[in-house]
Write a structure and sequence with these properties.
By secondary structure, the protein is α/β, with parallel strands linked by helices. It has 2 domains: 258 residues, Rossmann fold (3-Layer(aba) Sandwich), CATH 3.40.50; 40 residues, no CATH class. It is 37% helix and 23% strand. It starts with a helix and ends in a 14-residue tail after the last helix.
Length: 325
Amino acid sequence: MEFPLPLRTAIEQKAQEVSTADLMREAQGLSQRYREESGQGKRLVTTDRQALAYAAVRMPATFGAVAAALEHTLPFLEDLPTTLLDIGAGTGAASWAADSLLPLESVSCLEREPAMARLGQALMRTGSKPLQNARWISGDLTGRDPLPIRAGMVSAAYVLNEVREEDRPAALSRLWDAAENLLLLVEPGTPEGFRQLRAAREYLLAQGAVLLAPCPHEKTCPLPADDWCHFTCRIARSRLHRQLKGGDAPYEDEKFCYLAFGRTESVRASSRILRHPQIESGKITLRLCTPSGIVTLPVRKRDGALFKAARKSNSGDPFAYKGSC
């Protein structure tokens, strides 16, 4: 999904108020802090310039990952949420993604950093009515009290990795208690991001949550300890984005992992493609997660409709695998 043009334009207009060199320094410092200090509960973005650098270099990737996760999840929801609670909203990327795919009527954003909230509010003035009227709440996921409101959809994108390990179970309970219909968790597509979501999966299933996606089952994850489940979305880079990231490529690939939970039982994907399909002459090989475990499936031209489906498939897509081919 394309990054919204009004949002891109608003970020670029804000960036004109600061020198590119200053923004580059802020972006580099931000990247270093996220690499070295995530998971310790520390404040990583505290100034307006840092928030602007974050919006310029991270909002497109976060928007893309949340949108991709939602696109994989929505086919398995009977009723689409109309209210959103965006936890750790930052500058609002997850809210923009949800608004692009859902018939939202109201948006609420919980964010502890005033600089992020100020910029998020300013950017949302260029969006839809629900975004323009979004309610911004100052707060922290790791507080003791329940979250201030409940919503049809609760999102927590790139949030758990900023929470201390010992605080995560309580944080997950608050997220789940606030979700009336859908809880979406998105984390970096790294071994550590997957480890955190794997633990969240076990915890929330034990609380009675229903797993909607990406897993085609609620059994113990079949991946070995040295492997991890993650997907990729391609993000177009603006000129400003390329300048701040120091790259010439017109796009970047964001690796992410996600989990979506609901309140009621739903039909799941019969299997999910875990890696990019391996394409050879007359054969496409898929690595699938299935209810019976991980399967490597060679699909050949003689398999007809299955081959056509495999040819159009990508990593992360559901796939109609019934157990033999």
